[in-house]
Amino acid sequence: MRYVGEFRDPVAAKALLARIHEQAGRLGRPLAVMEVCGGHTHTIHRHGLENLLPESVEFIHGPGCPVCVIPLGRVDDALWLARQPGVILATFGDLMRVPGSHGSLLDARAAGADVRFVYSPLDALALARAHPDREVVFVALGFETTAPSTAVTLDRARAEGVANFSVFSNHVTIEAPLRALVNGGETRVDAFIGPGHVAAIVGTRAFEFLPREFGLPVVVAGFEPLDVLQAVALLLDQFVSGRVARGEASVENQYARVVRPEGNRAALALIERVFTPRETFEWRGLGWIPRSGLAIADAFAPWDAERRFAVPGLQVPDPPACQCGSVLTGRIKPRQCRVFGTACTPVTPVGTCMVSPEGACAAAYTFGGLDRATSRAVARER
Ligand code: SF4
Fold first, then answer.
1. What integer pLDDT is reported at residue 382 of this predicted model?
2. Mutational pocket test of ligand 1: of 70, 345, 353, the residue with most ligand atoms within 8 Å of the beta carbon
3. How far is ligand 1, taken at its centre, from the CA of residue 92, in Å?
C-alpha cells in the first residue's frame, strides 16, 4: 500500500465493514473504543466512520490533541512571556489562537507584542540568529512525537552558543495520562486505538501496560480511514476470539509501515538527554498528573525560558462555559457542550478543543453531522 487512494479504497472499506458488523454481532454487547490521537479523531469525523459502524461500537475521543490538553495557566504564561521587553515569541499557528484568560497570542500580537508563527523549532532558532539584539522564546508543545525536534534545536543552540534563544517547554508524555484516565474510572473504555505518531517514537511496547495491568487491548493504527477501520476489526477480533476474556489482551501494530515495537531509539535517547520528567504537570480535563510533562534538563538550563524569565507558573481554572475537560476525557461528546456552535466556533473558540483541526470539537464542527451518541441524547430530550 503505497498511495493514499489505497487507504481509502471503497471496496476494501466495505469488506472491512462487513467483517466489523459480523464480529460486533457475535460479540453481542457494546464496545467503547477510545482513540487517543487527535489525528484519529479528525479522520473519524472527516470520513464519517462512526456512522458506518454497528450501533454497538462507539468511538470515544481521548486526550491526544496536544493543543487541546494545554491548561489555561500555561497559555497565560505564554502571554506573559510575549509581553516581556525585547521578546520575540515564536510558536505554532494553532497555539496562537488558543484563548487565554485575557485573549490569545494573536490578540497580544494585535496589541503590539512581537508574536510570530513558525513551522518548526529550528525556524525559531533561525529567528534568534537573525535578531541577536532580541530574546527569542519558542513555545514548545506536543507529545513524544514533537519533543525530538525541540531537543535537536536545543542541542544546536547550545553547540552554536546562541545565547538569545530559549524554549518554554510544554511537552508531555503519553503513558501517564492514559494511566490517569483508566485509573480515574469515570469513562468506560473497553479498548484503545493507539496513537500512530507517538508510537513511531515510543514504540508499541510503550502501550503494553494497558493489556498487562488493565486487561485492555490496544491496536496502534495509522491515520487513513482503512487504518482506523482495520484497527476496529483487530480489536473486535481480540474480544470475539475470547482472548480478552482469557486475560490475553495484547498490543497489535496495524501501523507496521511506520511503527516498530522498540520505537525510534535515537529519538528516545535524544529526549532523555535534553529533557527531564517534571514531578507533575497540569492537563486540561485531567488535572495534575505526576511525571507527565518534560522540563528542560539542567545541562540546557541557559536555554530554558522558565528559568531565564522566572515564568510565573500561573494556575487558572477553565472558564465556567468551557467543557473541554469533559470532552477530553470522553465524558461528553463535543455537541453536548452547551456552547458548541453558538458561543464556541473555530472562529471564536471558547476552549482548546475548538482550535486545532485535531480537536474533537473543531472536527465535529467542521465536518458536521450528529454523532450517534448525540443523536440519541437529543432524541431522549425531545
Ligand atoms: Fe470546549 Fe468549545 Fe468544545 Fe465546549 S464546544 S468543549 S467550550 S471547545
1. 45
2. 353
3. 21
Mean pLDDT over residues 1-14, rounded? 80
User: Which ligand 1 atom is nearest residue 361's CA?
Assistant: 3
Is the CB of 329 inside a 6 Å radius of any atom of ligand 1? no
Per-residue pLDDT tens over the stretch 142-162 = 999 999 999 999 999 999 999
Single pTM value for the model: 0.91
Q: Of 116, 139, 41, which is closest to residue 356 (Cα–Cα)?
A: 41
Asked whether the predicted pLDDT for residue 375 surpasses 80, the reply is: no
Residues 352 and 302 in one domain: no
Q: From the CB of 172, is ligand 1 less than 6 Å away?
A: no
Indicate if ligand 1 lies below 6 Å from the C-beta of 344: yes
Cell numbers describing residue 374? 448525540
- Is any atom of ligand 1 closer than 6 Å to the C-beta of 322? yes
User: Do 276 and 364 share a structural domain?
Assistant: no
According to DSSP, residue 168 is labeled E
Instruction: Specify the residue with its C-alpha closest to ligand 1, atom 7.
Output: 322
Give the C-alpha separation, 107 to 16, whole Å.
Answer: 47
Structural domain containing residue 272: 1-318
State if residue 167 touches ligand 1 by the CB under 6 angstroms criterion.
no
Are the beta carbons of 321 and 350 closer than 8 angstroms? yes
Which amino acid is it at 72? L
pLDDT tens, 339-363?
999 999 999 999 999 998 889 999 9
Q: Is there a contact between 20 and 57 (Cβ–Cβ < 8 Å)? A: yes
Spell out a b/e string for 181-199, using b for 16 or more CB atoms within 10 Å of the CB, else e. bbeeeeeebbbbbbbbbbb
Count of domains in the chain? Answer: 2
Q: Is 337 in the pocket of ligand 1 (CB under 6 A)?
A: yes
CB 307 within 8 A of CB 203: no
Same domain for 130 and 9? yes
Regarding the beta carbon of 354 and ligand 1, being less than 6 Å apart is answered: yes
Q: Do residue 144 and residue 8 come from a single domain? A: yes
76-94 per-position pLDDT tens digit: 999 999 999 999 999 998 8
Same domain, 365 and 267: no
